[in-house]
Automatic annotation (TrEMBL):
Enzyme Commission designation: 2.3.1.30
Gene Ontology molecular function terms on file: serine O-acetyltransferase activity
Gene: cysE
Keywords, sorted A to Z: Acyltransferase, Amino-acid biosynthesis, Cysteine biosynthesis, Transferase
Protein name: Serine acetyltransferase
Gene Ontology CC: cytoplasm
Source species: Mycetocola zhujimingii
Pathway: Amino-acid biosynthesis; L-cysteine biosynthesis; L-cysteine from L-serine: step 1/2
Lineage: Bacteria, Bacillati, Actinomycetota, Actinomycetes, Micrococcales
Amino acid sequence: MRILTRIREDITAARVHDPAARGNVEIFLTYSGLHAVWAYRLSSRMWVRGAKMPARALSQFARFLTGIEIHPGAIIGRRFFIDHGMGVVIGETAEIGDDVMLYHGVTLGGKSRGREKRHPTLEDGVQVGAGAKIIGPVVVGKGSIVGANAVVTKDAPALSVLVGVPARARPRVQGKTYGLTEPEYNI
């Protein structure tokens, strides 16, 4: 996918998820979550091509600028949006699907020191509330919602709501929005 098309898609995702977004130029210039994702994409390309040290240096520089740490080894899908991103940490083996949204203070953290899958997988359409911690190689199923400050340490099926410490998964109630709107993209 071409870079300009991807940037346009990211800006559209920001408009869809953030009711305070007033215009594309404002989003392009001031949304640190998007800046962190764009820096991640560049550092990830470097990482995949074997330039590990420059990739890590770029990711740490982006962290300095945005307050958002995304390891270049993570795998992130399309239309990923971080709203009010300060304090977000995404580990090396994390996998994030399409149309995922995180709020500030979210940690996708590891649980071991081994060289294995040690960070979470968020499937398509997952939304994670402020301060939530998802720890270890758990899978949060498609369309799930993780509540603010929840601590997730176990897998959750698709269309779950996860709340509490430790978080417990319960099925989403059909038709209930949980204060959220389903994204609609017209690109």
